[in-house]
Structures are given as structure tokens and as C-alpha cells.
Amino acid sequence: MIVSWVITKKFIYIVTIAILFCSVVIYLWSDRPVEIVDVHYYSGKDINILARHFPITDRGKLNWWRENERKILEKYNLPENDFSVYIWDFGDGYKKLSPYDAEDEFYCFPDI
């Protein structure tokens, strides 16, 4: 009976430490500020925003947009009338097209 208590206590201790560690990592990872890398505006109505560290949840994404919409429109001199906004996860950044890649798998902005 004593042996099973020690194993159970050790197991609970390890699980608690793992949960705390994961919680800290998730908190620090999700608390990073969104970095706007580039903004492309063309064709009168399409705005493409390239961002890093974008929120994971849909609610977080909407909250971020609501908090930052005015700043983005002013900073990049974007129109305030009807427009579509596309926010792209910039990830590893711009990549050179390799000779082995199919061109239809990539998206390129007309102003690049």
C-alpha cells in the first residue's frame, strides 16, 4: 500500500509540473504582439496584410482587428470605404521559387 502511494504521489507531482510548464509556454507564446510585416493594397478594394504572431482563436483575431483597424488604416493610408481585408500568416517570410515548385501553388502580390 505504501509503494502505490509513493508512485501515485510522484505521478501527480510530474503531471502538475508538466501542466504548469505547458501553461507558462502557452501564455508566453500567445502573449507575443502581432507584427505587421507588410501591407499590399491594390485593385481599389483588396487589402492584404502580412502578419506574424497572429492570435490562434477566431475571437482573438477579431479582437485584434477591432483594436487595431483604425491604426492600420491610418498608418498605411488605406481607404475607409468598402474594402476586403485578407490577413496572411507570414510564417517564414518571402521565399524564392525553386525550379521544382509549381508556380500555381504560390501567391504573389501584383506590386512585388
TrEMBL record:
It comes from the Bacteria. This is DUF943 family protein. Keywords: Membrane, Transmembrane, Transmembrane helix. The chain crosses the membrane at residues 12-30. InterPro entries: DUF943. Pfam families: DUF943. It comes from Salmonella enterica subsp. enterica serovar Kentucky.
